[in-house]
Amino acid sequence: MIYTPDTDVDRQLLGQSRELVREGMALLRSTDHLVSGLRLRDELAQDRRKPPHRDSQMAGRARSFEGTPD
């Protein structure tokens, strides 16, 4: 199939596409309160699965050396 430009049809299609995007964004905004708890739960679960950062490990080691006499 060969595409031949038809400005009226293209303009109509673009307008419909924009309207669909607007409706989709409105739906996303209206459901945010429903999924925000799920997002938080997922983020916390990911944080629990991650190994500790090297910075926190080094800070723990530095604290253990603070109490030793010179």
Task: List the topology elements.
Elements: H1 7-30, H2 32-49, H3 54-66
Q: How much beta, percentage-wise?
A: under 5%
How many DSSP H or I helices? 3
Whole-number average pLDDT? 81
Shape call: elongated
Please give the radius of gyration in angstroms. 27 Å
Structural class: mainly alpha
Query: Largest sheet at a glance?
Result: none
Oligomeric state, counting identical vs distinct chains: single chain
Relevant terms:
mainly alpha, elongated
Q: In summary, what is this structure?
A:
By secondary structure, this protein is an all-alpha fold.
Question: Would you mind describing this structure in some detail?
Answer:
By secondary structure, the chain is mainly α. Helix content is 79%, strand content 0%. It has three helices and no strands. The radius of gyration is 27 Å and the shape is elongated. The mean pLDDT is 81.
